[in-house]
């Protein structure tokens, strides 16, 4: 690695103040600190000392996302190969590339599923990183500050929330909206009050609903149509879910219809364990989201309804289907847009869990309720923290007065 270090040191003066590429310093700094620990560290006691910096923390989140990424590759290919008519070869460059590599479309072949899924996931990921990264670099150059590592996580979360059939130009527009409107206009990383990846997805959800919801977008096979378990439950109750052949075990493992990285509750549980053990993700938020969902779904399940089939879905199914697990583990715990106070995290998480079920059940037109619920929680997080801090101040004043 020493030759690379020497090259970076040799070109550094060109990017520093007075250098001919001075305006591009954020790009140099991003590459340098991605590869090496910064040589300049704080020497006073005015900063919090920790063994991990922001860049390494974001890298650990990416590690926690690996199980979901694996399922995005495997299940996307598996669902497609499972439903490609026997003896036929799909049209398009992906099928041509598969044949060039000597691969087929066998749902029973792990390699066929992973490869075909990757050919759908990677273009979405590359567009997200290219377009979103360009916006990040542009704002950093104009503002003359460093490129923040938070986009590495946003750029991974956003593709995982999308269906495999999403047009790439919509991916570009969506991530542009999320980065610019959801983050940069508020000052960038650390100053945004909405989760940028969810803001991008919400924009696509309302701007282009035909390409991000419905029955035809979840499987990368032309002309194939099948509802997600949530969509089936909203249309005909649990009888429709069972009739589609989906079991609770399928929903837990993630071999069902859905957004590329959101189908597996098991993968999200593994990611949650990594985030909690490393101290990066808040277990209080995860637990309180589940508590809120269990409490509210239990009440609605016991009440029942003759006109709304979503009331038939019991609390366990609610936890296993849709993007609930993914949103709980990776989105609700976003340290920037979530509540900061320890007590506030309980209220924040419970609010998201309850709102998720309320949106799913009472308004089944939006079966994927956790996306809107987390954005709703993001808006209320500052208010929750305010009341928690004020209550703490009053309690201390009362204690001292006594």
Quick overview:
By secondary structure, this protein is mostly helical.
Helix/strand order, N-terminal first? HHHHHHHHHHHHHHHHH
- Rounded to an integer in angstroms, the radius of gyration calculated over CA atoms is 23 Å
Question: Which outline best applies?
Answer: globular
What's the total count of β strands?
0
Structural class designation: mainly alpha
Poorly predicted spans: none
Main β-sheet description: none
How many discrete domains?
Answer: 3
Relative helix content: 55-70%
- Helix count? 17
Instruction: Give the strand content.
Output: under 5%
Summarize model confidence as the mean pLDDT.
Answer: 88
Distance between the ends: 63 Å
Cofactor: FMN
GO molecular function: FMN binding; oxidoreductase activity, acting on NAD(P)H, quinone or similar compound as acceptor
Catalytic activity: a ubiquinone + n Na(+)(in) + NADH + H(+) = a ubiquinol + n Na(+)(out) + NAD(+)
Subunit structure: Composed of six subunits; NqrA, NqrB, NqrC, NqrD, NqrE and NqrF.
Features:
single chain; 402 residues; mainly alpha; 3 domains; NqrB; FMN binding
């Amino acid at each position: 690695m020493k030759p690379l270090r020497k090259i970076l040191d040799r070109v550094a003066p060109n990017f520093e103040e007075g250098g001919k590429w001075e305006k591009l310093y954020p790009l140099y700094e991003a590459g340098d600190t991605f590869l090496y620990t910064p040589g300049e560290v704080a020497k006073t006691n005015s900063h919090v000392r920790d063994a991990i910096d922001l860049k390494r923390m974001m890298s650990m989140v990416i590690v926690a996302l690996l199980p979901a990424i694996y399922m995005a590759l495997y299940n996307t290919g598996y669902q497609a190969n499972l439903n490609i008519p026997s003896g036929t070869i799909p049209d398009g460059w992906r099928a041509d590339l598969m044949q060039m590599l000597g691969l087929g479309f066998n749902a029973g072949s792990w390699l066929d599923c992973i490869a075909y899924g990757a050919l759908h996931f990677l273009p979405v990921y590359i567009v997200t990183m290219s377009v979103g990264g360009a916006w990040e670099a542009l704002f950093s150059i104009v503002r003359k500050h460093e490129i923040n590592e938070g986009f590495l996580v946003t750029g991974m979360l956003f593709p995982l929330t999308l269906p495999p059939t999403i047009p790439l130009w919509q991916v570009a527009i969506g991530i542009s909206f999320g980065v610019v409107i959801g983050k940069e206009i508020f000052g960038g990383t650390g100053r945004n009050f909405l989760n940028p990846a969810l803001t991008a997805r919400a924009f696509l959800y309302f701007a282009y609903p035909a390409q991000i919801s419905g029955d035809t977008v979840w499987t990368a096979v032309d002309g194939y149509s099948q509802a997600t378990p949530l969509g089936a439950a909203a249309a005909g109750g649990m009888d429709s879910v069972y009739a589609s052949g989906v079991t609770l075990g399928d929903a837990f493992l993630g071999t069902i219809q859905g957004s590329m990285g959101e189908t597996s509750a098991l993968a999200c549980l593994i990611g949650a364990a990594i985030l909690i053990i490393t101290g990066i993700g808040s277990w209080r938020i995860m637990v309180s989201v589940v508590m809120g969902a269990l409490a509210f779904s239990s009440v609605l399940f016991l009440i029942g309804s003759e006109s709304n089939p979503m009331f038939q879905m019991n609390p366990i199914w609610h936890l296993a289907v849709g993007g609930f697990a993914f949103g709980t583990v990776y989105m609700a715990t976003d340290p920037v847009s979530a509540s900061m106070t320890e007590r506030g995290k309980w209220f924040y998480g419970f609010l998201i869990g309850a709102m998720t079920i309320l949106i799913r059940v009472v308004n089944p037109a939006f079966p994927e309720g956790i996306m809107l619920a987390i954005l709703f929680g993001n808006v209320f997080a500052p208010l929750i923290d305010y009341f928690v801090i004020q209550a703490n101040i009053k309690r201390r004043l009362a204690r001292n007065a006594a």
